[in-house]
């Protein structure tokens, strides 16, 4: 495949290939995967899987879990499938599909996760068309994605989302509309004392548990990445 670079995830425990142009993976999918409470034998769905980085990290942390990634770009579907294969995640697959109309029956998955596009449609477009497409959000995109995730997850299963902090109220409202409870907000602080730019929201389908705010995670200090963040990004630890 032309235009592919090869690197690593989780301290190079995982081989990770991604497209040279377009969206490039950062911290977000690794942190998102660290919040999924999956167990061996369960099947997990990621919507907008890209080249599969979040599912790769989940598979490394939870041996025996099964994963399905849905991605609209054919080249990324192919790349995600290759990443699963070369990392010996034989119970993982990638398919081409639309997040707004997932090709699965209701209540098909034990857990679901997503890192939805979030740039405002009125904002300045990226000169890289593929990168812009991966990040650009229409006004109703978050509601549509969450509604579909809520449809395909089983009762007592989890939904995990990583979002800009400005979107958490809209997302929480839609999670509630999708009959999810126990909504947890996990702030991701760039540095101690700074406002969180990104957050992770988790919720449980058909749960009546109380909502809560976690202490969150500080990503950087004067030495670089904090030890707490390194435990997740390099060592594959769970976040919650």
CATH superfamily: Vaccinia Virus protein VP39
Largest sheet report: 10 strands, mixed
Estimate what percentage of residues fall within beta strands.
25-35%
What is the correct CATH architecture? 3-Layer(aba) Sandwich
**Total beta strands:** 14
Rg over alpha carbons: 17 Å
Quaternary structure state of the chains depicted:
single chain
Number of domains: 1
Whole-number mean pLDDT: 92
At the fold tier of CATH, the topology name is Rossmann fold
Distance between the termini: 37 Å
Anisotropy-based shape: globular
Fraction of residues in H or I helices: 25-40%
Briefly note the structural class of the backbone. alpha/beta
- How many helices? The count is 7
Q: What is the string of helix and strand elements?
A: EEHEHEHEEEHEHEHEEEEEH
Name of the CATH first level: Alpha Beta
Query: Residue ranges: pLDDT <50 for 5 or more in a row?
Result: 119-136
